[in-house]
Amino acid sequence: MAFGAEELRVLRRALALALHPSPASDADVQDCLRLAASVDDAVSEGARLRAFLLADLARYRAALPGTAAGYLALLEEVLGTGYQPGADDLAALRALRGNPVAAALLDRCRAVAEQAVRNRLAGRVTAAAPAPRALVPASRTRLLALPGGRGSADGPAKPKTPERPSQPAAPEPPRPVPTPAEVFPPKRRPATPADPPHQLAAG
Description:
Blueprint: H1 5-19, H2 26-62, H3 68-79, H4 87-95, H5 100-128, H6 138-145, H7 180-183
Helix pairs in contact: 1-2, 2-3, 3-5, 4-5
């Protein structure tokens, strides 16, 4: 697909609007719409042409070996459009390997088929592989563990003052030793009874 000078101007303007959104004039909008329609038409036409070539290639392949010249020319043309040769094409080229053109195309088709298989396998492995985890470098981990490592962006780290060793608690004062008098108090003597009153004899 090739663009003309006017189409390139419209494409450049559309890319500029996409990268730097700004109000677009009515003329710019109409030009972009016409360019989009032209691209859609070209893509559709390319798909139709490719389908026609593939159908023609199948007819020439079915009529081998009498159509070897036309088949080889069509195969070389569709390979240029991204065609993936199948097992029928490889079998037909093996049958025509006596032809130098067929031998060269056979090597080319084998390389294309092998690359397609590798791409499919790589796609399956990529889809099955888990998402990689974000790893923190070991040096970064050690820096974050240092004092002030996390807050370095806020300012220089303040030196940490050493903590004073805690003073031991004052010992409790010793309890006084009790005296023997406190342990063994003296027994109290019983109080002496008062003298009974003397009765005078009547006489």
